[in-house]
Structure formats: C-alpha cells, structure tokens
Design a protein that fits this description.
By secondary structure, the chain is an alpha/beta fold. 33% of the residues lie in helices and 17% in strands. The strands form four sheets. A six-stranded parallel β-sheet has the order 3-2-1-4-5-6, sandwiched between helices.
C-alpha cells in the first residue's frame, strides 16, 4: 500500500469510456487505501460514479474552463485542492497542461499528443498499447506507473432503494423483460435499423410471451416512438411495451438495466452500463470494433499479462458482420447503406437472446448459521457442526430448484481462515448434500467488492453459470444482509432463526429451521 496522498483523476468525457475506467478506480483505491481520490470530469459522467466508495469527491470540469482564461481559472481552483498526484485517464493535451498549471507535483499520463514534457511520469504508448481493449488501456496506464493492477469487471454501485424503485417501474410487465437500446450518440453507423428492433420486439412478445422496454436519451425519444409505432398494435398493450426513452435519469436507467432479464443494445453508453450491473447482454456492432470497446467477453486480460479476479458473472453475446469496410469508425456509413448492420437479422438477434435469457430456479443458502452452526470464523474442522435437516434440501431438487451456496468469508482476508479450508468446508455441501455450486466472497469489507453480500455478485455469477432466473428464486439466510441480497436480485427472502438475527424488515417469511423452509417451498 502506498503513502497517504490527495489524488486527482482526470476522467474521460463519455459514458461508455467512463464505465471502462471503473476497474482502474478500484486499483487506485486498493493502492491508496487511506488517500483522498477525487475525479474531475464533465457533469454528465458523474452518475456513473454515484455511490462509488472508491471515489471521495466528484469535481466538475465546468464549461467556463475552456480557453486560456478558463484554464487559469481552473488551475486556480485546483491549486486550492492541494493535490499531490494527478492520474490523467484523458489523453488530451488539455488534461496535462491543466495538471501542470495547477502545480500538482506528480503528473502521470500516457506520453502522447505532444504532452510528454508536461508530465512527471509519461507512460510510453506503443502500437500494442493502442490495440488494447479500453478497459485494459486505462489499467495499463496504472501498471506503467508502478501500481499493482488487477482486472475486475466494471461495476456500478447501486443502492437497494434504486433497485427497488426500478423494479416497481417494471412491475406488471410480462416476463421475460427485455430492455432494448436502439440509440447511439456517436452516430447512425452504430445503430441497428429501427425496423429490425420492431421485428425483434414482436418476436419477444409472441414467442417468449415477454415484454420490451425501450430506452434512450431525450433526443432519441422520436426513434423509440417510431419503433413502437412499427410493432403490430395488438402486441403493444401496457404490459408488453414500455417506452422510457427521454424520461429517465442516468441513475434510473442503470437501475432499470439491473432489473432486466436481458438487454439488447448497439455499441453505446447504455451497453456499457448494462454489463456493469451484470445484465445478460446481446450487443450489435457496426462501424466500431468490439476488440476495443466491446463487453467483457471481448476483454482478454490474461493474454495481455494482467492479473484477473472476476467477482460476478455475465453472459454476453456480440454480433458483428465481417465486411472488408468494417470497422470503419465513421459516424455515418461511407457506403450509405449500413450493410454491416442490415446483414444482422432480427432472427439472429432473437436466437442470441434466447441463449442468455435466465430460465432455471434456485434456492440460495447462506452457510454459517443456516447450513451449519455459526462458529464465528469457522477455521477448524472439529468446529463444523452441520444442521441435521440439511439432508432434506435434496427434496427441493426434485421440485426443480438448484441448490446454491453463497457465503461471505472475510476471515480469509483477515488472515483468520485459510482459503483452502473454506473451500474444503464448501466442498462437503457439494459432495454430501447435493449442492450444485458454492460461491464465497474472500474479501475484506473495505475492498468494496461486487460479491460481498448484500451486493449481488455471487448470485450474478450463479445466474451466468447456471442460467438462473433470479426473480423466481429464493434466498435463505440468517442475517439482514442475506435478506437485502434477496431484495437486490428480486428473489423471495426467507429468514431462518438458527443464526444471527431473529427478524428482518426485508424478510418475506420467517421460519425456525430448514425443515420448515423445505416444507414451505414444496407446497408453493
């Protein structure tokens, strides 16, 4: 861990790029645990970082900061901040000169665009650097600065109330609920045709019995209205089609995406927002290159020498046509026909969507206090006392449920519990009691990970691994954090009075032991 500092990060200006810097902020927080980390950026990227514990303050890059007078004003404002270091994720010359004028002694950025003389440490840019996926591009900057970099999936922090509010907005829609994002701010060369989105919507409603939710900016409202108008009127009932384009804030949109059964999107800001909340995703690429800006399946950290730690699961499919002219990186198609997008058919997108829509049911179980006595950091096999009625859980498999363990094990990070011991204990439930999988979070609470309950990371990984429909599943636990997890993923929450808590405001039902839980589920 490095010395305590006051750090300014000059962020990037677009939503998608902002999402792709999220793993880098987690690296900075890990390395500078006791430091203040401030992010400077345009106001419209701020919601991406709302509630993010890795950032202490957002500093708006104001419109009046442009021009020579504006730079002097901005540098004066930043001097008051007393920053020790500046990390420049933005490539622009502007970012480097502002850090220089602000008197920040340590200025770290890529040595490009003629700004090397303004940096105290310029990280070289090679041809290989420019071919990195953008998530790795930002991590590589930190790696070049000597920080210990670990690739983690980008993660947007949502509060429980935001998730619940989004679930209430979608309440009443037929499931599966598929969010469609037909827009792309960059230009029309990234937009799958509107008639294709309309045809896909009809397939979702007719073949899946589901519903579609159209999203977009205020400027894209007309596009969403046009798509809605193309769908047969007999399919556009209120429980089948919802048009939210132009009427949601960015945070509201993020929460809506977190509650979707799947998302279909062009290469756009909402596409990046979708995978950063773990939503199953189909992405349609035209003029751009998924190897540079695609969803997580396109990132190859191990191939590029980065350590990796994946805390939650994600299913994503990328659809792209192989044409000589693609990717062209143009805003408008030079050919005028956007053939790279038109050759991707609604049937092809529907088939890809069908592969990732969650379908199975699961019961998620906390371990200590539910499956075995809570020994308060169980670390000796002689202290493992499995509850006798655990053997009755296999009856749930006959009813079609998967059995999934999800356990916070911060004792590993605290040095109290060996990781191998925790895995050995979990293995007992896999081998003897019919569990299908057992996930655990080994992190310290201060690590701000995506997997520690009540965060949904472990449940999202299970969804990805087993195609689990979280909203038809159940969470069984003995603590408020277990019940909050259930609320976060839309599952039924069952509290059992065999562990820490005897009640919870978030529990749907409370039972005295596992036998009662099994009886209730079998009668559902």
């Amino acid at each position: 861990m490095l010395d305590r500092k006051k750090i300014l990060v000059r962020g990037v200006n677009w939503i998608g790029d902002a999402v792709m810097t999220l793993p880098s902020f987690r690296v900075l927080r890990s390395e500078y645990r006791d430091s203040e980390i401030h992010l400077m950026g345009k106001r419209w990227i701020a919601p991406v970082f709302g509630k993010d514990p890795n950032i202490d303050r957002f500093v708006e890059y104001k419109t009046e900061y442009t021009g020579v007078i504006g730079k002097l004003s901005a540098s004066g404002d930043l001097r008051k901040g007393g920053y020790d270091s500046a990390f420049l994720f933005q490539n622009a010359f502007d970012a480097a000169i502002l850090a220089y004028l602000s008197g920040i002694p340590e200025r770290i950025g890529y040595n490009r665009d003629g700004r090397g003389f303004l940096l105290s440490r310029g990280v070289p840019v090679t041809a290989e650097t420019k071919r990195l996926h953008h998530v790795l591009y930002y991590l590589n900057l930190l790696k070049g600065a000597g920080l210990k970099t670990v690739y983690r999936l980008p993660w947007i922090y949502l509060e429980r109330r935001e998730r619940i509010k989004a679930a209430e907005v979608l309440e009443g829609l037929c499931r599966p609920i598929i969010v469609l994002n037909p827009g792309a701010t960059y230009g029309s060369a990234k937009r799958w045709p509107e008639e294709s989105y309309a045809a896909l919507s009809a397939m979702i409603i007719r073949r899946l019995g589901g519903s579609v939710v159209l999203t977009g900016s205020e400027a894209e409202r007309g596009m969403a209205d046009k798509i809605t108008g193309m769908i047969d009127q007999d399919l556009t009932a209120a429980d089948r089609v919802m048009n939210l384009a132009g009427i949601t804030s960015l945070r509201d949109l993020v929460a809506i995406l977190s509650q979707a059964d799947a998302v279909v999107s062009n290469d756009s800001g909402p596409m990046h927002l979708a995978y950063a909340v773990g939503a199953p995703l189909v992405t349609i690429f035209g003029s751009t290159d998924p190897a540079l800006t695609g969803p997580p399946s396109c990132v190859r950290p191990e191939d590029k020498g980065f350590d990796t730690e994946i805390e939650f699961g994600l299913k994503d499919v990328v659809l792209k046509t192989d044409l000589e002219c693609s990717p062209c990186f143009e805003r408008k198609c030079p050919r005028g026909d956007v053939l790279c997008l038109r050759q991707i058919t609604p049937e092809e997108v529907f088939d890809a969507l069908s592969q990732i829509i969650p379908a199975k049911r699961a019961v998620f179980f906390d371990r200590d206090g539910i499956l075995c006595h809570d020994a308060d950091y169980l670390n000796r096999m002689e202290d493992l006392k499995v509850f006798p009625d655990v053997k009755t859980l296999t009856k749930l498999k006959d009813k079609g449920f998967l059995l999934i363990g999800v356990s916070n094990q911060s004792g590993i990070a605290r040095g109290i519990v060996a990781r191998e011991f925790a895995e050995r204990v979990n293995g007992i439930f896999l081998e003897r009691y019919g569990f299908d999988a057992f996930y655990y979070c080994p992190h310290h609470p201060d690590d701000n990970c995506a997997c520690r309950k009540p965060s949904p990371g472990m449940a999202l990984r299970a969804r990805s691994d087993f195609n689990i429909d979280l909203r038809s599943s159940i969470v069984v636990g003995d603590k408020g954090t277990d019940m909050e997890l259930a609320r976060n993923i839309g599952a039924e929450a069952i509290l059992v009075r065999t562990g820490k808590d005897s009640s919870s405001d978030y529990a749907d039902r409370v039972f005295n032991n596992l036998s009662e839980v099994v009886g209730y589920i079998l009668e559902k």
